[in-house]
Write a structure and sequence with these properties.
It contains 26 helices and 20 strands. It has 685 residues and is α/β, with parallel strands linked by helices. The strands form 4 sheets. Strands 14, 15, 16, 17, 18, 19 and 20 form a 7-stranded mixed β-sheet that branches. A 5-stranded parallel β-sheet has the order 2-3-1-4-5, sandwiched between helices.
């Protein structure tokens, strides 16, 4: 036993968090030692400094924030100090650490430094998951660029920390405690040489501590693919190359663990092309530990001329993936281009958020990708494993005959929207090539829509309650439909910036009925020429501009001017909500308009089919004569009927500001471009 063991000894573990620090702390506690481990509350800037400038931030704390004095005070009271600021002490100049030991010695305390360590790759992977599980990317306020470089930054810090530890160990300043299988033999020898406890005591304490603070098993993402090889070798090779490219993009998120399910048509299932695909996937699996497994299944055969039933294929692939252990599944395609190197972390966090907010099991929810080619629409939903537990598949048994190759994605999204469990994961971006998007002329199969899907979703969502606590509140689904001929950006921004109450889920659906003017507005926004834009580009540009409010906006444009009635009908067809609020595009709405409607909807009688809002016309002594004449003529009476006590239940109201329950009724196209009240009266009655 060394002489200084008669003094008070305090061990300071400067090992990186998740490198075995908890195992050492528990083992020391098993021996009766007093342990101090804490993580300071950090500001956004401090979080980023911890990541990018550890030497600066620990130096500032050590010198200006009395960090040295804090350590000396703690060393007198505790036998082991770890985690928090002390993990960054290796970034200080060694002379400062020497001085710290000397100052402690003056108080009768012997400071001994150790560093628990593990392989940098393992440290970084563990840290990445720690950042996801504890939502540190949001807490630290990382932007998209910083999130993309998070792994690189963690790796750089871990490498530098490891080099500093090795340098201090070489100089004999500290002892290294590597987190390895033989640690039960190596740690006790090192620790007994600097503490009052014998080797055998440490050995038993470490053995009893066992594995501590291990991350939960990483969830598994199910990637679902279906395609045809074609007849020639070149085409088949291209398909396999595309699959490999897609998997490569998926694996850019190094935390990602995934399995692949590929569905092939029966005539290609046993082909030589399928064999080459299997060989490729097997080589891919052997080459890394991110892909857990792969599975190739056969699509249900279809008769000649029958439309491809991708919904059935999606359902069968999803069931296979869930049965093989997937925590969520997403149907992609060989033409998908993923543009997010941290998509897995983003969806992992999204499912964690849903579970925490609803007190639901992990895997409940339907978050969706941001499809840059079809923004504002849940083209690529990620469906959690709890869906399989409830319905036994992706499609409920009683709906399998209804879905062929369209509308399954919004059906799933709408069901989960009722529980606020279908968020768009905006940073998880991709682009869709061919495929079956509405408005696209490039679909590779005959589209067969399911026109009743909104009604099905509003009937079937109740089954999801099996996963939720009894008191879980449901969202009111209320969409805002605005036909616009004028395309006045200032007015549309005012409408799309309305505050959406917490108990309401809303999509602002703007139906532009003037394609020429839309092209001009989009060109102005982008500072470009109209001949450089397609109509789809213009929809996307205006949608992006209006979405700056933070609300969910969908813009669609008629190819020709068809009038207000047809435009409102298109808006109604786009909506899957329980209620639709019709607004005119020249309104200046009160910012709390939706809040006022929301209050009435909370206890709306089932027999009431709608609510009529107030549209006030300006009044002023200085009104132009024509405006005053309009007011005096009572032409505005129906616009302001909501304030007339004589009519508590008017039979109809104008579409400038009126809300209806979901219905199959549509506006009569007889009044296609009428400026009078024919369309409103006909629809309301």
């Amino acid at each position: 036993m060394n002489a200084y063991k008669q003094e008070k000894v305090c061990i300071i573990n400067v090992g990186h968090y998740r490198s075995g620090t908890t195992t050492l702390a528990v083992a020391a506690k098993n021996l009766g030692a007093q342990i101090y481990r804490t993580f300071p509350a950090l500001t956004v800037d401090q979080h980023k400094a911890f990541l990018h400038r550890p030497a600066d931030i620990v130096g500032n704390w050590f010198e200006k924030k009395s960090g040295a004095n804090q350590i000396l005070e703690l060393a007198e009271k505790f036998d082991l100090i770890c985690d928090g600021w002390v993990a960054l002490l290796p970034f200080l100049p060694k002379e400062k650490l020497d001085h710290l030991k000397q100052e402690a010695r003056k108080t009768g305390t012997q400071l001994e430094f150790v560093a628990t360590t593990r392989a940098v790759k393992s440290t970084v992977e563990s840290e990445l998951q720690h950042w996801v599980v504890n939502n540190l990317e949001a807490v630290a306020g990382l932007n998209t660029t910083e999130r993309k470089s998070l792994k690189h930054d963690l790796t750089a810090r871990a490498n530098e920390h490891q080099q500093l530890i090795e340098s201090l160990a070489t100089e004999g300043f500290l002892k290294v405690l590597p987190l390895v299988p033989e640690m039960n033999h190596t740690w006790p020898k090192s620790l007994s040489s600097i503490s009052k406890f014998a080797t055998e005591d440490w050995s038993k304490a470490i053995r009893d501590a066992g594995k501590q603070n291990a991350n939960p098993a990483l969830p598994i993402e199910g990637i679902l693919l279906t395609f045809r090889f074609g007849v020639d070798e070149k085409g088949a090779k291209t398909k396999i190359d595309l699959v490999e490219t897609l998997l490569g993009k998926i694996e850019e998120d190094s935390l990602c663990r995934y399995l692949v399910v590929v569905a092939l048509d029966k005539d290609e299932f046993g082909s030589s092309h399928a064999g080459k695909l299997q060989k490729s996937l097997e080589e891919w699996r052997r080459g890394n530990n991110q892909i857990v497994s792969y599975h190739i299944i056969s699509n249900t055969p279809r008769s000649h001329g029958q439309a491809f039933n991708i919904c059935t294929a999606w359902n069968e692939m999803a069931c296979c993936a869930w049965q093989k252990g997937a925590d969520w599944v997403v149907l992609l395609g060989d033409d998908i281009k993923i543009d997010c190197p941290f998509h897995y972390r983003a969806f992992y966090r999204s499912f964690l958020d849903i579970a925490e907010q609803l007190d639901a099991p992990f895997g409940f929810g339907c978050p969706w990708w941001h499809d840059k080619t079809f923004p504002g629409f849940p083209t690529f939903p990620c469906v959690g494993k709890q869906h399989f537990e409830v319905f036994g598949g992706l499609i409920p048994e009683h709906r399998k005959s209804n879905f062929v190759n369209q509308d399954l994605d919004p059906y799933l999204h709408t069901m989960y929207s009722k529980f606020f469990a279908a968020p768009c994961v905006g940073e998880a971006t991709l682009a869709n090539g061919a495929g079956g998007n509405l408005g696209s002329d490039k679909a590779r199969y005959q589209r067969v829509p399911c026109t009743e899907w909104p009604d099905f979703a509003l009937q079937d969502y109740t089954q999801l309650r099996k996963c939720l606590p009894g008191q879980t509140k449901e969202a009111i689904l209320l969409d805002v439909v605005v036909p616009s001929y004028r395309v006045r950006l200032d007015y549309l921004q005012g409408i799309c910036s309305l505050k959406v109450p917490e108990h309401i889920q809303t999509v602002f659906i703007i139906i532009v009925d003037n394609p020429t003017l839309l092209m001009e507005r989009a060109a102005d926004i982008e500072s470009t020429r109209t001949d450089e834009l397609t109509l789809a580009d213009c929809e996307r540009i205006l949608e992006g501009k209006l979405s700056e409010s933070g609300n969910r906006v969908r813009v669609r444009c008629n190819r020709t001017n068809v009038g207000a009635s047809a435009s409102r009908n298109r808006g109604l067809d786009e909506s899957a909500s329980e209620f639709v609020l019709n607004l005119d595009d020249d309104l200046m709405p009160n910012p709390n308009l939706l809040e006022q409607y929301g209050k009435h909807l909370l206890d709306l009688d089932d027999n009431i089919v709608g609510l009529i809002g107030l549209v006030r016309f300006p009044r002023s002594p200085n009104l132009p004569l024509k405006h005053a004449a309009v007011l005096m003529s009572y032409l505005t009476f129906m616009f302001e009927i909501a304030k007339q006590d004589l009519y508590p239940h008017p039979a109809w109201g104008v579409t400038a500001n009126i809300l209806f329950r979901r219905t199959k009724v549509r506006f009569d196209l007889t009044y296609a471009k009428s400026k009078l009240f024919g369309k409103e009266l006909n629809y309301d009655l």
